From TrEMBL, chain A:
Pfam family, one: Response_reg
PROSITE patterns: RESPONSE_REGULATORY
Name by which UniProt lists this protein: Response regulator
InterPro entries per UniProt: CheY-like_superfamily (IPR011006), Sig_transdc_resp-reg_receiver (IPR001789), ST_Response_Regulator (IPR052048)
Sections of the chain in a coiled coil: none
SUPFAM superfamilies reported in the protein's UniProt record: CheY-like (SSF52172)
All residue ranges annotated as the Response regulatory domain in the record: 3-118
Family matches, as Gene3D superfamilies: 3.40.50.2300
Residue(s) carrying 4-aspartylphosphate: D52
Species in which this protein is naturally found: Sphingobium fluviale
Keywords of this entry: Phosphoprotein
Any one GO BP annotation for this protein: phosphorelay signal transduction system
UniProtKB/TrEMBL annotation, chain B:
UniProt-listed SMART domains: MeTrc
Protein name: protein-glutamate O-methyltransferase
Alphabetic keyword roster: Methyltransferase, S-adenosyl-L-methionine, Transferase
GO MF annotation: an example: protein-glutamate O-methyltransferase activity
CheR-type methyltransferase domain location: 1-278
Catalytic activity: L-glutamyl-[protein] + S-adenosyl-L-methionine = [protein]-L-glutamate 5-O-methyl ester + S-adenosyl-L-homocysteine
EC id: 2.1.1.80
InterPro entries: Bact_Chemotaxis_MeTrfase, CheR_C, CheR_MeTrfase, CheR_N_sf, SAM-dependent_MTases_sf
GO biological process: methylation
Superkingdom of origin organism: Bacteria
Listed Gene3D superfamilies: Chemotaxis receptor methyltransferase CheR, N-terminal domain, Vaccinia Virus protein VP39
Amino acid sequence: MKNCLVVDDSKVIRKVARHILESLDITVSEACDGREALSQCQSGNHDVVLLDWNMPVMSGMEFLQQLTATHSSRPKVIFCTTENGLGHIKAALDAGADEYVMKPFDRDTLESKLQIVGVL
Amino acid sequence: MKEIILTPAMRMLTELLEQRTGQILSENRLWRIETSLGPVLRAHGLKTLDALADAIRADASGAMGTQAVDALLNNETSFFRDAHIFALIGDQLIPAAMRHAEALGREKQLRIWCAGCSTGQEAFSIGMLFQNNRARWPDWRIEILATDISHTAIARARSGVIPQMEAQRGLPVSDMLRWMEPEGDDWRISPAVRGMIDFRIDNLVAPQAPTGTYDLILCRNVLLYFTAERKRALFSALARYCASGGALLLGAGETTIGLTTDFTASPEHRGVYRRVDPA
C-alpha cells in the first residue's frame, strides 16, 4: 500500500484529502505545517506528499526546498493550493515539485495526478 | 436503489433521445432524467417534466427538444483519459500508421477522427501528444476531426476554454503550462493545438462530417449507450471511414466481437481493432 503525507493547515482540507486518498487504497498521515511535515519525513516512509503552499510556521515552498536539500531520495511532491497563478505554478516546478493541483479539486483530479507521478 | 417509475413525460423524453441520437437510457441511468433536465426546466421557468414534455411538443422549431436531448447526454471526459491508451497511440499506433502511409507512398499526413468527442479533451490530448513529439515526426501533419451530437459540447470544444476543475483533470501540469493559458478562472487551449482540430456537430447514427478515410478512429465510451442493432450500423459507418490498415479504438468493456466482421481485435493491444480489408 502507498503512503501519502497530507500537509495543510486546514483540518477540513486534510479530512477531504484523507477521504479521497483512503478510497484509493492509500495510507494517509497528516501534518499541519511544513516543519511538522519535515519531521515526519525524517522518520516516515512516504511515497508522495500533498502539499499546501500557505501555512503558518513553515510554508510549503520552504518545506520543499529543505526536503530537496536534505534528502537525496525524496517522495514525490504534489502542490495542492489556492495559489493558482502562473508565477506560483512555475516557481513550484522550478523548485522541484512533481505536480500541481489547484484548489478546489475533486477525486478524479487527485487520482489522475497520482497516476501522473506514478504513485497509482 | 429506489425504483424509478417511468412516467409518460419520461418515456417521451427517452424516446426523443433515442430518436435523435440512437442512445438509450438503460434502467440504471433513468435517475439522470430529472437531475440532468433540472437546468433546462429552470431556464424556461418550468416546474415539472410534464410541462417540459408539453413545451417540446408545442415548439415547432425543435430547439427545446435539442436542449433537452443535449442535457440528457453524458459528456463526461478528461484529458488523457485512460493514459495507457495515449501511450499506445504515441508509441505504437501513430508510428505504425506513418510507416504504413510511407509504404503506400502517401503524403506525410495522418487523419484521426474522434467520434463522440464530447467537450474536446480527447482531441486536445491527441493534439498535445503530437506537438510534444514534433521532434520525432518533423515533417508530418495530423488532421483531427472531432464530432459529437451535443451542440453544447461542440460549442465549448470550439471555444477552447476549459473550466479550471476540468483543465487539471488528467493533464500533467507541464502540458498545462505548455499548451494552455489562463483566462480568468478558466484555461484556454493554445492556437497550436486548437488549430489542429475541426470540431463538428454530427450524429454517429448517420455521420455526415467525415470525408475520405481516417488512419485512426477513436470511438470510446459511446457504444455502451447503443442497442446491438445500432452498434452494428455504427460499425458499418466506422468501417466506411477507416483507412485500409487503419485502427479503431474503443472504450474499456466495448468490443466489436459478435457485431461486425469489418474490424478484428488486435492480438497485441486491448481495445484496438484493425480494419479488415474487404475481400
